[in-house]
Design a protein that fits this description.
This protein has eight helices and 17 strands. With 345 residues, it is of the alpha/beta class. Helix 3 (76-90) crosses helix 4 (101-114) and helix 5 (232-245) packs parallel to helix 8 (323-344).
Length: 345
């Protein structure tokens, strides 16, 4: 790879940068250090210069700041126009975008205009060399874009040797967000874009945000249920255990599809990616799609009637038994210990 830069699309809402954008800045920093190039944050908005400093603190060397009142809220056409013009002018080597609803809207629009490849929903990114036998040529320092394929049954590595930039969207939570370094220095380069009338055909009449009451990504403890939790009463046990442990309730796709719990609780390839200190998998067989979203948990307790359940392969503690019988015993033990502690005090 040449000295051309690695860009990260910085998504933000109401003065807060999306976690996935900072996660990608950290990953871009790691990749850029391997090949000796810069990390550039691409930030569009209005009155958001303070966010540029936050991007630098998390690992960027430079922030391209597109300031315009028409960029105050995300809209496909104005954001894409600015990105496309700057990419043509500056020719970044790599452009990384968070796999959010806005990111999934923005990335293909830019990739189509640049006539370059785009890999969606990556779970890992690496730098490496790739040999093309037909050309008898080795391409140096390509972006290896790694993602599950064929329903999660395979892991595919995708490369793009011929067109630039190499573009990928990355799932939220799969990269670790770096710690901010307030002393870190960088360059903020302001640009003032211009727009045609056709860029502004969509007008935002109102903007409302409904915050989720579920925070799986930051939960220290998650008690998750799957198809083996067959009734609403058993899911109530999960909630009780989660409350006792100070955690959140999660679920596999099978539990969500069965109507036992809302989709906002879903963990896995098509849900949220989590890294809690403790993950209790109750009645979850452990399909690769689910494990992709939680296998980085510090400690995993699996409860399942099937001793050969795939979840047991990654669990630190394994309990072979029925969820409806095991969970009440765990809850009873925790309550008794809490009572003993109160009496001792």
């Amino acid at each position: 790879m040449t000295a051309k830069n690695i860009w990260v699309f910085i998504e933000h809402t109401d003065g807060h940068i999306a976690e996935v954008s900072l996660e990608l800045v950290g990953k871009a920093r790691e990749l850029a250090d391997q090949v000796g190039t810069e990390v550039v944050g691409f930030l569009c908005g209005h009155n958001v210069e303070a966010l540029a400093q936050d991007v630098i603190a998390h690992g960027a060397d430079r922030v391209i700041l597109a300031e315009h009142e028409e960029l105050a809220l995300y809209r496909t056409l104005p954001y894409a126009r600015v990105a496309i013009e700057e990419i043509k002018k500056r020719e970044p080597e790599i452009f990384l975008i968070g796999g959010t609803p806005n990111g999934r809207d923005f990335a293909p629009r830019v990739a189509s205009a640049m006539r370059c490849g785009l890999t969606a929903d990556c779970t890992d990114l690496q730098i490496g060399d790739y040999y093309v036998k037909k050309e008898d040529k080795t391409y140096k320092d390509l972006l290896f874009q790694i993602r599950p394929a064929f329903g999660g049954n395979l892991v595919a590595t995708i490369v793009n040797p011929h067109t630039r930039p190499q573009m990928a969207t990355v799932r939220e939570g799969v990269m670790r967000k770096p710690a901010a370094d307030a002393a870190r220095k960088g360059v903020v380069e302001k640009i003032t874009p211009t727009f045609d009338a056709k860029d502004l055909v969509l007008e935002v009449l109102s903007h409302q945000i409904r915050k989720s009451t579920i925070n799986l990504k930051d939960a220290p403890v998650i008690v998750a249920g799957g198809a083996g939790v067959g009734t609403a009463d058993e899911f109530a046990l999960l909630r009780e255990l989660a409350n006792l442990l100070g955690g959140e309730v999660g679920a596999s796709r099978a539990a969500v599809d069965s109507g036992l719990i809302e989709k906002v609780h879903q963990i896995g390839q098509t849900g949220t990616t989590v890294r809690p200190r403790l993950y209790v998998a109750a009645g979850i067989s452990g399909a690769i799609q689910h494990r992709a979203g939680m296998d980085q948990s510090s400690k995993i307790i699996a409860i399942n009637t099937d001793p050969n359940a795939p979840m047991f392969q990654i669990a630190h503690y394994r309990i072979v038994g029925d969820v409806g019988e095991v969970l009440p015993l765990i809850i009873k033990t925790l309550r008794e210990r809490a009572m003993d502690q109160r009496e001792a005090e």
